[in-house]
Amino acid sequence: MPIAPQGREPDPPPEGAVQPPRGDLPQPGPPAEQAEPGPDAANGTAAPDDDYAAALREAEDRWRRALADLDNLRKRHVRELEREVAAERARTAAAFLPVIDNLELALSHATADPGAIVEGVQAVRDQAVNVLERLGYPRRAESGVPFDPARHEVVGVVQDPDADPNTVVQVLRPGYGEAERQLRPAAVTVAKRE
To answer: Are the CB atoms for 186 and 152 separated by under 8 Å?
Structure first.
């Protein structure tokens, strides 16, 4: 093969000519599996690359197991939460069953003395209020107390000379629950400021 002047590539060989190997190109050697063992292999110790690969495989295995455990925990938590919600819903409904029974009893005596029916309906109402209180939602229907926007909803403002300004004059619809846990606020009328 002719030598090219410096800075210039040699001309391509003629077709069909076999080129001798060049010294600046890497020459093919034995495959990696057949490579001769290094000095560490003769001592019986693994090469650092093998240690890193083994540690990497172990870390990846632990990571996959942790992901699977986390997924199983999440699924179990969802199942337990659904079960607990259903159980609480059943307990709440069961607490109202006596109220429904007493309402049906009052309706069956609709032709009786009107005064007795009114007393019976009031007793059923008190029973329902008691159930809500046991569930953590006490009835709030106080008048004469200072207006609290966390517990009251103003539906009207009135001028009342006997009431202090910004106090509840009348409760139109009672509220249930505390300020942090409310089913609904009380609908009230409030005394106007002078």
So the answer is: yes
